[in-house]
Each structure stands twice: as structure tokens, then as C-alpha cells.
Write a structure and sequence with these properties.
The chain has 4 helices and 5 strands; from the N terminus they run H-E-E-H-E-E-E-H-H. It is of the alpha+beta class. The relative contact order is 0.22.
Length: 108
Amino acid sequence: MNSEKLITIIIDALEEIKAHDIDVINVTKITSMFEHIIIASADSTRQTKSLANNVQEKVKAAGGNVFSVEGEQSGDWLLVDLGDVIVHIMLPAVREYYNLQALWRERN
């Protein structure tokens, strides 16, 4: 599955469970490990987990692969590794503190 189709599936899955502030960052000029990072915010740890589960289900249903999921125990910040796309689902305070958007955009 190409990255653009994968991104569309991910965005739809995130919007379905009401994620907000969804940001897609192309990182192909920075790293060869993956092509895009998607960052989304959730209002609770329960919602971060639901969002991560929905992303996994939708990607698998479309024939994609889920390589790993990190952060499920705490739920503040979940990372879903889909190969060419890495999805970060974060609580707003965690997202603000780590500011991944600025980190990846400044280097891009």
C-alpha cells in the first residue's frame, strides 16, 4: 500500500473517533526509516487507546501492516508503527511539552 493511501486511511480512522489537531509531516528529507509522521491529539487516555485501536483495525482491514504499538500502558502518548507512516496519538499537555511538530519541521 502506498503512503498516500495509508495516510488517508489513518486520517479517516482518527477523525472517526474524534481526534483533533491532526498534523501530517513529510520526513523523507530527514530520514529513510519512514516517510511521514502523523500527530493527533486526544482528550483522554481512554480516547488515545481507542484511536490507536481504530487506526490498527482500519489499516489491517485495508491490507496494511501494523509493526508495533508503544505506550498502551500509560495511554498519554501512543505510537503506532505502520512502516512508512508513524502515528503519534498524544494528550494535549504531552504534545505541547515534546513539540514534535517543531522538531521535525525545523529539520525538514
